[in-house]
What does this fold into?
Amino acid sequence: MAQRKNAKGSGNSSSSGSGSSSTSAGSSGGSSSPGARRETKHGGHKNGRKGGPSGTSFFTWFMVIALLGVWTSVAVVWFDLVDYEEVLAKAKDFRYNLSEVLQGKLGIYDADGDGDFDVDDAKVLLEGPSGVAKRKTKAKGLKERSTSEPAVPPEEAEPHAEPEEQAPVEAEPQNIEDEAKEQIQSLLHEMVHAEHETEHSYHVEETVSQDYNQDMEEMMSEQENPDASEPVGEDERLHHDTDDVTYQVYEEQVVYEPPENERIEVTEVTVPPEDNPVEATQVIVEEVSISPVEEQQEVPPGTNRTTEDPEQKAKVKKKKPKLLNKFDKTIKAELDAAEKLRKRGKIEEAVNAFKELVRKYPQSPRARYGKAQCEDDLAEKRRSNEVLRGAIETYQEVASLPDVPADLLKLSLKRRSDRQQFLGHMRGSLLTLQRLVQLFPNDTSLKNDLGVGYLLIGDNDNAKKVYEEVLSVTPNDGFAKVHYGFILKAQNKIAESIPYLKEGIESGDPGTDDGRFYFHLGDAMQRVGNKEAYKWYELGHKRGHFASVWQRSLYNVNGLKAQPWWTPKETGYTELVKSLERNWKLIRDEGLAVMDKAKGLFLPEDENLREKGDWSQFTLWQQGRRNENACKGAPKTCTLLEKFPETTGCRRGQIKYSIMHPGTHVWPHTGPTNCRLRMHLGLVIPKEGCKIRCANETKTWEEGKVLIFDDSFEHEVWQDASSFRLIFIVDVWHPELTPQQRRSLPAI
It folds into this structure.
């Protein structure tokens, strides 16, 4: 090492011009000359090598360090070395702690009533709604502004704003929180962006950057609709009570559903133009492989009601609800922490957190509302009606507390009513809706909901009064119009119902884009001879409410083969058809015996499906249940049918005799579901004058022969013979339904 060092010293001496090799050697053995030291200091070498960090090497090392930093960042993200959720939580906790420290001083600056001080509040306090807030670095500046300008401009002042919220106080803490919030929000923005790139969307939606008030704002802005927010899927049906799902009444009998069309045989209306044949899209075989979950799901009629049309969304004005009273603002940090757990999907932890808050603060409406929401979520997660009943009770407890903010009271009772309807507690829901209307008499949306509540229990008269009241105040309310039109049509005021249904749908208001309204509008137009009926059916088809212009059933399972007429071989029920045709005389004789008027077992069709005439029916099975009294009148026929569960177990159909007298015409109509096929066995058929049309093909009956058609397609019947016509109607499950679907589909 010494020799190498000496050599380097010699080189330096030579380059500096020392001149003597001996001197150079001697110098290297001791200390370098001043010139050599200077040369060494500046890194000079004869061969061009550098001994120190020149400008170039600074840049090189800078690039090396920069690249190391980049790759380290990549490694952190790639190998998930940082728990971003924990970082976010700590940042949020820091904000909570700061908020707690400043709560007492900054609470009175809460100009918009959302429970905290933010940029919006600053704009209101400093320069009004349109100005840009300029930061004041001294308390004096804010005091001067607050004395020279009103704290809240008149156009933004809330009618129930509390005086303390607007009182001016020291502004110095405002600057502290502004600066802290800017730093925290910047950090949160960066962290949430990184989280968005690495986690599933579910977790992104639940990050702490989402304030729970934002969720409440969305709830307030949406038109709440029981059957829209809770579509009746088959897996969801497990969440209903077992008392035969009264909830289905709203969907299938009282409101919107075509008047139980099973009781009819066929339909009529002017046949559509020849350029509207049954197309391939209308008679389609969708051989789709259905997943175990999907195969159980039925498409409810309200599925497409919530439109994605931006114009309709623009009509829904968002309002930021006030959910915190004065006391709840003082515990906002604790409320936010519990709400954060719920947002993240940690339902059990959130339930415990809100229970503890309710224990600590029993008079806190927001804490109790959070507990109700968690119980609601937990009921959905566990598919538990018992837990849901607890949530319903807790929503009621919120409403019974003192000093509940109006928005929170409204949210609690509306959700309680919705959950009651979900469980089939229609009368309890009606009482809740009546209380809402009493508390908020000027809210027409609540009156609209009340009208639906009356329809749910079959009280059309009171529902009509409610909608008349709404329309007298807001004559252009589309929701009220379609429902009022529906009621008029149910009262057989056909022509009068048309403008209400038509204008209501055209309004585009939330809750009006529903297949049931297109169904009834088209049906009403058909009955008055208005050729625009098929225009509305076509529009309903384009908007996803109907499978086709012809097939307009509302309770469907997707992917089932769809065609108007079927052969026995296509159904796979050849043994049933053979049995019916072999025993047709036995079936006929028992039917004729029942026709004796003294027994009075044939009942008139009462669904308003006849334009004219006399049409009666005698039902043996309804919704998969045997009518024991009826079977006493046709015991052999009932015994014969017991061998065929595809018909006796069809909970979406009937087995019945149907007698139609001369001069009868049945309006064009469709059945309620595509889940069944209908068999007609001819028993007593006049030689001429009786016919049935399904879609665009018309056929006649023959004694002892079976016709099979899909009554979810439009059909119509004429009886212009000189004597009565008697047939036997047998409904069967659609052959492509799985055993699981046949067991789980709700009855119609």
